[in-house]
């Protein structure tokens, strides 16, 4: 069997030969193109939707490579001086997908929404009721360099491993903090999705190792890390797809056996350290599953058409939007960079579980998954979590799984012990905030503020004993 389809852990590429693009998507795409040439006022960025700050954080003064950022200050902070208001950083996956997808399609304050104007479908920015900047500052970084609007001076400078990714991120985060003296002591939470299941532990680990070597004024005030539908321990995760799909009724027993054989190949190549072939073998697993099920997307088995994240690319092609964000008009925006994807091809199957093991002993960690994702879902996450070498693990595994409600409605399940929280988000796929914006907002706010199901049970029990 040979598969040629380009797969990304984050996003479907708009590839007309791709099985994941439907005629509907193509129609919309063409309509948007047509519209853009006929009505230049479409898809602009109204003043009220502008980020508080956006632009570039240089990561290498010699070469000029720089990370693009868009920052939205908290809308209704608890602390009006902002000096203690948490800062949440969001990293998209891929590898090579822009965090502007997180911004304009998932958890940013303004989301792209199609609407009809004179019978022509066009995109509009609308306030997001589930934005993550309601009470926290929210920073989107296009990571690594070469991704989205970020600049890689040469393709050779694009990181090929997680240590280099973390080194650049660390520089960028420190540069961001230095932009405003009031950022200095704000608690920082680093979050992300999908391939950021590698980035988030890697930058967290880097920060905790580097901080003690630096004067107080140069440390990054890390308070916690959160990963949604992450790829973290690929060797374990790649072994879960056959069973998950079989029990969902998506493949039969014969296909399950075939898929298990493909999974085994990926695991063997990973164990052998044959990294590039191991990545290809994992892609074969997904191609087989895609072909066998005929689903619109493996990111959500309920969907009859793929996620519409291509809207972000359409929107960010507009020169006026680029100008408003502080980006040179000549920058070509791709929602996922194939060059960055290629640079990290051999990184895909490398595990960062050991970094998570270190982090959970030293800071708080949230792992959450939309329940309907077939690529980086709940079963895949629980499979590696239970392998962690951590003295708190047994207590976590024995902890009650609480039923989680938001505004009186069933939202999912929360399991928490010590520094580790795990959330299953119901009626959501890979893009949790796209599907359940308000619930995802409740989750991140309660987790950061140690509230409701994320409150420290040890302290509660202490009071009960009194
Ligand atoms: C900056 O670029 C130069 C030249 O490519 C390289 O030697 C150096 O290691 C880079 N620095 C960082 C922090 O990546
Ligand atoms: C990697 O695996 C392939 C089979 O997929 C094999 O042909 C190749 O020799 C292996 N490379 C190394 C360096 O082991
Ligand atoms: C896809 O599925 C069809 C029919 O189920 C089969 O004939 C074909 O070989 C499959 N292709 C791949 C690449 O698995
Ligand atoms: C949780 O993290 C704190 C540091 O914030 C650490 O002191 C504690 O030992 C950790 N708990 C466990 C069970 O690892």
From TrEMBL:
One Gene Ontology cellular component: extracellular region
Hydrolase as UniProt keyword: yes
InterPro entries (UniProt xref): AB_hydrolase_fold (IPR029058), Peptidase_S10 (IPR001563), Ser_caboxypep_ser_AS (IPR018202)
Source taxon at top rank: Eukaryota
Record key words, sorted: Carboxypeptidase, Hydrolase, Protease, Secreted
Major localization class: secreted
GO molecular function: serine-type carboxypeptidase activity
Gene Ontology annotations of biological process type: proteolysis
Database matches in Pfam families: Peptidase_S10
Claim: Signal is one of the keywords in the record: no
Subcellular compartments: Secreted
EC number(s) on file: 3.4.16.-
Family according to the record: Belongs to the peptidase S10 family.
Protein name, per record: Carboxypeptidase
Organism, as annotated: Cynara cardunculus var. scolymus
Organism ancestry: Eukaryota, Viridiplantae, Streptophyta, Embryophyta, Tracheophyta
